[in-house]
Each structure stands twice: as C-alpha cells, then as structure tokens.
Amino acid sequence: MKYVGAIGRGLILVLLLIFILTPDSFAPLFRPLTENNAPPIYNQGSLLSLTLSHLAIVVSATAASAILAVGLGILVTRRSGLEFLPLSRSLVNIGQTFPPVAVLAIAVPLVGFGAKPTFIALFLYGLLPIFENTLSGLTQVPRVTLEAARGMGMSPGRRLASVELPLALPVILAGIRISTIINLGTATIGSTVAAKGLGEVIIAGLQSNNLAFLLQGGLVVAMLAVLVDGVLVGVERFAASRLGGDDTPKAS
Fold first, then answer.
1. Rounded mean pLDDT of the chain?
2. pLDDT band at residue 42, thresholds of 50, 70 and 90?
3. 238 Cα distance to chain centroid
C-alpha cells in the first residue's frame, strides 16, 4: 500500500506540473464547464506564479507558527514555566477562536492589503495544532528515560536537546503537518485582501460564474494538499524510524 500511495502521489505531481506549466493544453477538458464563450482556462495571471506565491505564504506562516508554538510548548513543560500554561493556551487559541476572515478584517487596517494580513491570519490559525502536539510529545517522554539521562549527568538543556526533543519529534512533526494542510486551504481567503495565491482563481470563478475557474483553483489546492501531506508523512516516518532504531541516551 505504501508503494501504491507513492505512485499515486507521483502521478498527481506530474499532472500538477503539466497543468500549471501548460494550462492551455487542458482547455478541451474544461470548455464544457463554461458558458457564453467564457475562457476555459484561468487567464488573469500565471497559475505557476500563483501556486508558488500560495506555497510561499503557507510555508512562511507555518514556519513562524512552529517556532512560537514549539517554543511555548518547551517553556510550559519546564518546571519554571508551568504556571504559564493557561496563558499560553489562551494565546494559541486566538487563531481558532477568531475565524481567519475576522483576523483579516482586523489586520488590514493595521498592516494594509496584500500578503501581510494573510500571513497574520495563517500564523495565528496554525498555532494550536503545533502547540498541543508539542505538549503531548514532550509530556509523553518516558520518565525512566529522563531519569537515565539525569543519572548520566546531563544538564537540563542537554536532556532537552538530546533526549526530549528527539523523542517528541514525530508527534511535533504531526502537528506541523496538520497546521500546514489546514493553512493550504485557508490561504485561499487571502485573495480577498489582494494577497497573491490560488484564491484569485476561485474568486474569479465566483465573480464571473465560471465553473471551470472554480474547479481549477480547487483542484490545484487539493493536489498541493495531497502532495505536501505525503512529503510530511514521509518526514514523520523517517523521524520515527530513527527513533525506533535508537531511543536511549548515550554517554558522551
């Protein structure tokens, strides 16, 4: 099944590349979905450029979310930072409490139109999965392993870097994967505030009642989600396999 999935994702990648590089070659497939001689292929911008812009804002926002969420997760699992757990949970829940559209509405007057308000919305929206998975990963490290590391003379910082984070890494990566996939779909709303991305294709379809445009934007986002998910699942499995091969601290 693993190889079947890899082959499927490979075919999706090839199809995606062909479509965003030579979209006009797919015009006969989409023409039946148009009316009144409307263009069958999105023609108000480059699909390749929009796809790259979409990925760039998702990756940058998720990376920023990961830095803050993992940092907070580490802080509140230390004895000195345990009292900040309720406050940290409140902070990372902001993105889930306020819908991304509401965050955009608040951010635009502050930072203007374009990519910045979209980045803020995705950054806030992606915090919770990463934070909760970081908490789960770090709190599930076996106590006997920590005691062994402490008995070997490891400092708290060394235990964190050499024992706790490596053991928690697969769970943390799962949170980053979830956040990334959520943001891939959510990023389409950024086009409502003039951010470059695949939402432009979908909005153009809605405005012109062109089902072909709607389908093209949705399909590209869906294919990106499948491909990115496959890549990140592979990274998780690699981390888990390394952990399975060596999950005990070694003396230096």
1. 89
2. very high
3. 19
What's at 162, amino acid-wise? S
DSSP string, the chain: -HHHHHHHHHHHHHHHHHHHHSGGGGHHHHGGG--TT--SS--SS-HHHHHHHHHHHHHHHHHHHHHHHHHHHHHHTSGGGGGGHHHHHHHHTHHHHS-HHHHHHHHHHHH-SSHHHHHHHHHHHTHHHHHHHHHHHHHTS-HHHHHHHHHTT--HHHHIIIIIHHHHHHHHHHHHHHHHHHHHHHGGGGGGGT--STHHHHHHHHHHT-HHHHHHHHHHHHHHHHHHHHHHHHHHHHHHHHHHH--S----
Q: Using an 8 Å Cβ cutoff, are 184 and 222 in contact?
A: no
pLDDT-derived band at 57 (thresholds 50, 70, 90) equals very high
DSSP string, 157-175: HHHIIIIIHHHHHHHHHHH
Planar angle of CA 211, 217, 221, nearest 5 degrees: 140
The pLDDT of residue 252 is 36
Contact 89, 77 (CB under 8 A): no
Cβ atoms of 140 and 73 within 8 Å: the answer is no
Among 218, 166, 211, 154, smallest CA distance to 31 is for 211
Q: What is the pTM of this model?
A: 0.88
Is residue 221 within 8 Å of residue 198, measured between CB atoms? Answer: yes
Instruction: For residue 2, count CB atoms less than 10 angstroms from its CB and return exposed for 0-12, middle for 13-18, buried for 19 or more.
Output: exposed
Name the residue with higher pLDDT: 143 or 18: 18
C-alpha–C-alpha distance, residues 104 and 187, integer Å: 11
